[in-house]
Protein 1
Amino acid sequence: MNRLENQCAIVTGAASGLGLGIARRFVEEGARVLITDIDREAGEKAAAELGDAARFLHHDTSSVDDWQRVMATARQDFDRLDALVNNAGVTLMGSVEDVAIDDFDRTLAINTRGTFLGCRFAIGLMKERKGGSIVNIASVSAFKPQPELVAYNTSKAGVALMTQSVALHCARSGYGIRCNAINPGVIHTPMLDKVIAQVEDGEALMDSYKAMHPLGRIGEPGDIASMAAYLCSSEAAFITGAAFTVDGGLGINS
Ligand SMILES: NC(=O)c1ccc[n+]([C@@H]2O[C@H](COP(=O)([O-])OP(=O)(O)OC[C@H]3O[C@@H](n4cnc5c(N)ncnc54)[C@H](O)[C@@H]3O)[C@@H](O)[C@H]2O)c1
């Protein structure tokens, strides 16, 4: 505890699921957190639950204007930024033949462009103090293809390589900014509940997800929050450009 004492952080998509779990852990570890989301009602509720160390901002991560507004608030409230977790994301189902083209574009706009914009704007503020940690939430889907998730696979593979590109740029520029990715396995969040609701036999799908994880369960937001807190702490000072798979062994299950 208190590994993030006095840190100022932004967590996107933090009104629910993984983002809320990460924001909660950051507050427990001593950070002040701007939690951002497009869902205003859930975001305000989450901030109220987290207490004085958290403030909610309405934010569409695919929008440049919104990022400028969020960064202006970070400057005004904190005058610094130590950590950014690019967590906001969507999963829209469809194969290469049947995914709606608008859904493909939207998935990339939020998952990939949103992460890119977050890195770009965070670097601007972090480099002023020569330090910071960016954590991008990618997925096991960044390297494990699923035929019905072509847009999601594409968007997360983009996040994976973008993380390395950003890490190298920041290191070579001498900014003291680290950038890493987390690849969660299947985690129990509202996003998963939406996927389950879209199929005919949701219970069978949930059982198959559990069976796919050699550790015998799906993950919880706290499993990912632990890794995010570690990556933003001084314990991870020598780690950049890395991808940490937190998936109960899913990725090594053939
Ligand atoms: N749940 C899983 O199994 C799983 C596995 C691997 C990776 N992930 C990734 O973890 C992240 C969080 O997923 P989750 O499962 O918590 O999902 P979730 O749907 O529970 O939460 C996502 C949050 O992002 C917000 N959001 C959506 N579009 C946004 C936008 N344009 N701008 C700002 N906020 C936006 C939503 O309102 C929601 O609060 C996503 O990037 C997802 O791809 C999830």
Protein 2
Amino acid sequence: MSADSRRLDRERQTVAAMIRLYCNHQHGRSRQLCVECAALWDYVQLRLERCVFQKNKPTCAKCPVHCYQPARRTQIQAVMRYAGPRMLWRHPVLAIRHVLDETKKAKRKT
Ligand code: SF4
Ligand SMILES: [Zn+2]
């Protein structure tokens, strides 16, 4: 796996885990995401695919571009606010890696 795909794959795993946790606790879904969260997850995947930074991607929360539509941004912020502090207990490795990714500086793909 290339550095490009590893970085994005990690981000996908982290956001997917956060949305699952949020949907499970807030919407009572355990096996499948609710319609609203499934649509958010589809949207996140599309943004990651088209991210201008690729392997040099900062976390979306620290991004200078913020490519999300305002409504989606509000939605993902609610997920992050809820799931962020709970991730350390549920997914410690992903949580720690996410914190490390937060120290990265954004650099556009060349
Ligand atoms: S918000 Fe920034 S880092 Fe996140 S996908 Fe969009 S451009 Fe990339
Ligand atoms: Zn949900």
Protein 3
Amino acid sequence: MRIYPRYIASASPHVRPDDLATCVSCGLCLNDCPTYRVMDDEADSPRGRIQLIREMVATSARPQASTVEHLEACLVCRACETACPSLVPFGRIMEGAREEIALRSRPAGLREALRARLVDLVTRPTLLAFIARVASLYERTGIGRVAQRVLPRRLARMESLLPAPEGAPFVPIPRPEAGAQLLAGCVMRAAFGDTQRATVRALERSGFTVGSPADQECCGALHAHSGLGERARELARANVRAFAGMGTVVSTAAGCGAHTRSYGWLLADDPAVAEAAADLSRRVRDASEVVTAVGAPLPRGVRVVYQDACHLAHGQGIRKPPRDLLRMLSGVELIPIADPERCCGSAGTYNLTHPEVATELQRQKAGAILAARPDVVVSANPGCILQIRAGLEAAGADVPVVHLMRFLDDPAAVLSSQA
Ligand code: SF4
Ligand code: SF4
């Protein structure tokens, strides 16, 4: 029996009956859901998960373990939003449901406490910068190759995803009057310093002055995806204050961009910041939407695969601007791949919490990319870059995988260094 609750027993402010009522159970999203395709279970499809959430919030009981399992197995890739003709806001429904699960699971068990700790750790730029430096040393000394042979499977997988840093970490320079304000990010700031500096150059070439507030925080996307709603709202409030009254806020990470665009909705019930949060959401742009000038042309023809990040394509509807920028570089041949918008399995911490599904999606993505015989793979999200790099490496391929802004800035350098 399908349940359509009019009143819901929800402690999370983000589980809303109107959102839950949008799904008409047509099933048109099923074939586009990566977890349904891999796990072949209705409860691991968007329609099945929405029904589980409806049943969960119809009472205030602690959710069953199987419900939690199916809801946690969702990538929050939002491919179902693209497929859904009824405009179901699945991303925010799932974030609300996970917060609800966390609130009803108090006191938190060891697993929940460990997840909260993991999210907290991976969103600290200083700690990430330290890990990135260790990862670099690790690679240079060859310990990484040895570790892959001797570590147990799960640890070897974590090791393969360590972000070897691009140069020094990015240091935000505050210039409140600048027209473009860079969202520094956590992983982007610590491990993708060269990409962030390339983005600043690209914005300057496109006529912007560029700043980046020193007091900005992690955007909170990983916290929201993990059910840590209160912490996510705290971080959102801090960023609303940090970017108040400034110009365009530029994101270089699809997940951060999609999440900051949702601040208006996230903080709509907080009268102290609701208006400023909505204003910030309206000012957020992906770098590919504002950059208009590219670097030096390529000396030869280069086959490029552009990998759509889920939170850029499904989360923000951005598909054309990155491809248009790549086409502006003379010498670039854009090669399409099969299922270009299927998740690569990265999805925040998903590749650590659900390694089997993540590895299968990674294997499928690497296969689709290698079938296109690219010279380089370009994406606009750090998680996808790390996941695809590891996937191509596991497949025995030596193809550089870099951020769009870094490639546009100096494509020849990327190709010669095999970054
Ligand atoms: S989420 Fe959308 S596409 Fe999927 S079953 Fe519900 S209404 Fe249909
Ligand atoms: S967000 Fe992705 S994994 Fe989750 S139900 Fe939708 S399509 Fe499936």
Protein 4
Amino acid sequence: MNALCTLPGGWIDRKGVRQREGVLRPLRGGDEEWLYTLPPHTSQASVLITLLARCVRHLGPYRASRAMIRMLPAGDCDYLALRLYRMTFGDKVEMVLVCPNPACGAKMDLDFDASLLPVEERPQLPRYTLRLGLPNAAEVSFRLPRIGDVEAANGARDPEVRLLSRCLLDIDGKAPGGEEVVAALPAEAREALNAELERVSPRIEDSIEASCPECGREFRTAFDSTALLFANIYRRRREFNHAVHLLSFHYHWPLSEILGMTREQRQRYVRLLQDELDLAAGMSAGLD
Ligand SMILES: [Zn+2]
């Protein structure tokens, strides 16, 4: 079943209207199969863009496209990745952590409910302004960093400079120039700009509180919904292959139909089939 979601930031259409309502379809076997065949060093942002271009059906009244996904604030994409995780694997998140206390280093399991993860809604504006008060940059205008910017910054010599220069709209009313201009800004100005970007960007919580059951140390650990989604898909590759094999071998359904199923549908048939096979195995064992 498709899910309706309200994006924490939203996409701004050509008329300047913000669209926050999206329709997301669940992951299907075909998406999983596609993920398994990607070259190993494809950047996380590139994979997420393509996956969302496959799964986001609509943004407002528009049919979603890859170009539209590239224009979504990075926080909206984290949010959509978390929704895909919950639609595919349910609300429970299980993480294995290592205690950061050097004297302890115990391994621990951390479970939490993904539906309770705080989402900071900050509806996107086309333009933001920040006073830097520098002689050659008194005031800058910028837009929010998009997932397309994150993708473009990947592999840049200085990813932060690449990202900032893409988001700057003007400096004191003039076109901001290239990456050299951002690279030449004093460190405090870049820090102020980064802090402002963080303050106005939509986001989902990116760290989780934990406490070590062995030594009692309390700490926070990073949480990345996109990495969580991909890790959970990748570590089930054997299970996926086994399910697809079992269904095609016994039901003789065409592969396209099996790959059109969600994980939940697939699992349902696999369980039924497994019960039948176990029963048949038990009967033949009884006959021996
Ligand atoms: Zn510990």
